[in-house]
Amino acid sequence: MNKSQIDISVIVTAHNEGQLVHHTMRSILRSIEVAEKAGIRCQIIAVLDNPSERTADYFERYVGGPVQVEKINCFDPGLARNHGIKLASGKYVALLDGDDLFGSLWLKKAFGMAEKSENDCVFYPEYVITFEGNQRISKYKGSSDAGFDYATMLEFNCWNSVHYFTKKSLLLNNLYHETPLNSGFGYEDWHWYCEVLAKGIEIKIVPETCVFYRKKKQRSRLDVHVNYNVISHPSKLFDYKIFENFCERQKPLFKRRNPLVARIKDNIHKRAETKVRSYPRLHTLILILVDIAKRLRRRKPEMLRIQPWLLEEWKGINAIEPQIYPDKTLLEKIEVYKIPPSRIGRHYLELCELYGKNVSHVFLIPWLKRGGSDLVTINYIKALAENDLARALSTPVQDRLPGERLFGKRIAEGLHVIAQDDRILKDPPPTIGLLELADSSVNFAVRPWVNAADYWNVYFDITEKMKKRFDAEGITIPFPQRDFHVYDHTE
Fold first, then answer.
1. What distance in Å separates the CA atoms of residue 74 and residue 359, rounded to the nearest whole number?
2. Residue 352: in which H helix or E strand, if any?
3. Which end of the chain has fewer CB atoms < 10 Å from its terminal CB, N or C?
4. Are 223 and 161 in the same domain?
């Protein structure tokens, strides 16, 4: 086949899958067969990144045949995909990991939807069925679908793995970042989705399509990332202006709190909690009722209702992977997974608004104390300072989160701690200005707004902190002085 005539390049990446990749290849060939009956021309590129002996031996059967086999040694799934993308001859590219499975209709329907699309988009299957280590079914939403929340991307990858379909040209402009294990960075798929969203590229769902995702019981790339405590590369999606723009589009989903209302609610909750804790039996009863309510909410129906087309796909894949079959027992027990709403998206935006729009890094930590997450957080902060990526650290200060005391003596030299006092009201903003050109000083006024009950405590604390900061910076307090000139009138 002339490479210039290819419509779809299917890129499968493999490493240590062994004989599992045989199921993957059979699912690809089956989906290609359906696509070719509709006149869609396809090619397969297998990128073997530092393959195990069994994996390499399996692909020997394809050498010189319809599958283009490429062996590389970059030890990085993202770079392996980049390698395959650059070799692709098709107008479109469909990616798949070496242990996952295509549904039979995936390539045909994704191609049909892509050809009708006016804009360059990323196309994703409607359902992902997880098997082996975890039995789960997930129905996905596109980035423009009702109910999708961009803020969720702060905590969760809203599209699992790389089984998507898009133009080769789009991929060449959005290649994967390098994520070697010793770099401390990972979750390359999650980061890739964030980056394309930041550019305004839509993720669209292809109706009546599915893929099958193998969640290995051990030694998966995801498990390695978790064990190594890696983090995702910084993404432009979470730059303040870009993130705010997306959140503004979703006002019904993402409502910012009025600071005064939020403070009143928080005070009510704290007082109620304190009152309840003073009655141990009542407190225990409430905890039991809350636990029962959570269990009832999680309870699934006796039988999961599956659309006929999906049930047919699910049964059909059994001929390729025998451990997958939607019997009655599985449908009664399988988890129906829904991505939960973001718990921190609103707070992240509020922090950006409060501490400045040019903030480079924000750490959202639910509980910070010695012996907890403080060491991990401080290590991240030290790394930023040592690489000249951060100059100041801003920490909220509360009774249970003593920012200055916790961080002051434990961070890298030259990194200043700016303690933020939550007793100071956000609205109205503080007044800071030049007050007076005095005889021996230039006087500035710093007047934050606080609740009446906090006035004197905040006044004393701010005055003390300003004096200590001036001392640390070598700024002396001027004092009144006069020059006396003595004249000797005898001369």
1. 34
2. helix 345-355
3. C
4. yes
